[in-house]
Amino acid sequence: MRLRAVLLAVTALQAESVIFSPADRSVVNGEVRVVARQEGRAELMVDGKVVAAESPHAGVLTAVLKLGPGGHEIAVEGGAKVKVHVGEGAPAGWLKFREHPPGATACTTCHAVKNGEWAFAKASLVGVCFACHDKAAFPKTHTHEAGIVPDCQLCHSPHGSAAAKHLKMTKEAACKLCHN
Ligand code: HEC
Ligand code: HEC
Ligand code: HEC
Ligand code: HEC
Q1: Does ligand 4 come within 6 angstroms of the Cβ of 146?
Q2: Nearest atom, ligand 1, residue 157 CA
Q3: Domain 1-97 adopts which CATH fold?
């Protein structure tokens, strides 16, 4: 009984890992940046083997992987996993993953360690986003000023995605977060 309880506790912790980049079931270049959250001291695995990764802070895993043609599974040991494909022959419906920001801008553009936690560099990332994106064009695409919809990551995947405009949901669903 006791062992079972411990196993359940471990499983619950490991379920907290997330692979943000690359997206599950996407087509990637031979070189792909992994951005993941881990719990404990889990390793990064590719096709079942441990690979070298950096941990800029506890709970954070990142690496730039070089992958050969074909299908691969990227996993946080015992936790989250994504399937990707390099080159020709990807399963039908798999879309191309696009990294964001392109060109591997440093993690510290958006992140900082605060009170021992991997947190955000600024209380709000809006200014960081508009350092690269056109603020004047924002109300046209969003119906609102940035002040009304300030949590950009509510709707956009900040580390990249295979979705148009890096949207986490459809525009309709995004408006319904606040409107009936
Ligand atoms: C353009 C801004 C931006 C950049 C650059 C960025 N991140 Fe993030 N990151 C975010 C946002 C926003 C979130 C919140 C996740 C969400 O809501 O989807 C996040 C979440 C995370 C988390 C999860 C934190 C938690 O406690 O849940 C980790 C880990 C992480 N990022 C790692 C990285 C690493 C490593 C890099 C560099 C390779 C990086 N990020 C680059 C914006 C960024
Ligand atoms: C409520 C959801 C939501 C939030 C929050 C949100 N966006 Fe968007 N964003 C969208 C949608 C939906 C689109 C696509 C609009 C379209 O294609 O008509 C979009 C498009 C974009 C685009 C592409 C614009 C273009 O020229 O097509 C950028 C850049 C962008 N958003 C940046 C941001 C930034 C920066 C923030 C935070 C200040 C933010 N978004 C907050 C929903 C959101
Ligand atoms: C260092 C510069 C930089 C920062 C900081 C940055 N972006 Fe971007 N972003 C880019 C570039 C470059 C592109 C690619 C534009 C393209 O593909 O036409 C992009 C693409 C996007 C897109 C998709 C636009 C499209 O038309 O597909 C969205 C949405 C977006 N960024 C939102 C954000 C949000 C939200 C933040 C803040 C959390 C942010 N960006 C921070 C440089 C940046
Ligand atoms: C984060 C919450 C939030 C999201 C997401 C959001 N809105 Fe709003 N919206 C508001 C608030 C608050 C108001 C009232 C303040 C104002 O009018 O500026 C409003 C007002 C409006 C109005 C003016 C009419 C009215 O009901 O007062 C329209 C039209 C509108 N929103 C459309 C949209 C559309 C389209 C989207 C999706 C692209 C969207 N909203 C997403 C919060 C939101």
Answers
A1: no
A2: 18
A3: Immunoglobulin-like (2.60.40)
